[in-house]
Amino acid sequence: MSAVAAWLAGEISPEVALGRLLLDGLTPAEIMRAVPPGSALARLAGRQQANLHAVARMLTRARVHHAGAQDPQAIARMFDRAVAEAPDASVAAYTLNDSDVAARATAEIVDWLVAGGLAVGPVLDLGSGTGRVAAALAPHVDHVLGLDVSAGMVAEAKRRYGTNLRLRFEVTGGQAPDHLPAGSFGLVLAVDSFPYLIQSGLADAHMAVSARLLKPGGALVILNLAYDGSETDCIDRWSGMFGLSVELRGARPFLLWDGRAFVMRREWPAQPAPERPGRAAG
User: Helix axis angle, 49-62 relative to 40-47, nearest 10°?
Assistant: First the structure.
């Protein structure tokens, strides 16, 4: 279904529709011709013309694409170019590089985590990007460690939030963070990063480490798992491999963003059954 048709059907927000049209390679002028004249989508596109041009330039110069295998270094270079061009859109094209749209989308994510009892610290943010979600989540938890393969993204996160003592951002080489102690985190969060881990062939390794890093009762929350339709196969396989229970499987809990939510949890260790009292000697 086309982005415009999906918006007309009420399946996606106008911001996501415009983001998809940009990702499809349409220019801002072509977008104006593609949307229904006089519609809310057309009005949003008209207001966001400067930002649409900025995002289009970013997608072209960063050479953003979601198809085919890529090694972590290629993905890092792509995001380095993207964040230098349009920081807000570099992590989510649907924000249209508009800080207000980015703030609304971020608030939806954090409010959902808090309302669902998932905002339990410490938190590991895999693929933390510019730090927007980590910073919004920090007031609700002990602290957040954000990891990203892009040095440019981490530099932007530190520029924005480097004075917040509840936040720490580090560059990774793409490898799973197996140097961290087991049972260290109440929440492992991955916002739109697993599709790239799947692209680079590193998803299984990150899942294994994420399961090890969770405290008993802790949750792994993946917001967007794959762009190739393999979500169900991945979740079922990982649940069996790493002993995680599946609590949510591909729901769409957000109004602005169309990201799919997956929640897996590390169970509490089974408690031994109490011993039955022995019969008293008579």
Answer: 70
Strand, coil or helix: what is 98? coil
Q: How many CB atoms lie within 10 A of CB 149?
A: 27
- Which pLDDT belongs to residue 282? 44
Longest dimension (CA), the chain: 95
Distance CA 191, CA 172 (A): 16
Asked if residue 134 belongs to a domain, the reply is: yes
Return the bridge partners of 220, or none: 188, 264
Domain containing 7: what range?
3-97
Q: Is the pLDDT of residue 56 over 50?
A: yes
pLDDT tens-digit series, residues 2-19: 999 999 999 999 999 999
Mind listing the pLDDT tens digit for each residue in 120-147? Answer: 989 999 999 999 999 999 999 999 999 9
86 token code pair = 């349009």
**Cβ 77 vs Cβ 115: under 8 Å:** no
In degrees, rounded to 5, the angle at the alpha carbon of residue 231 between the alpha carbons of residues 228 and 235 is: 150
Closest of 104, 102, 136, 131 to residue 119, by C-alpha:
136
Specify if 235 maps to a domain: yes
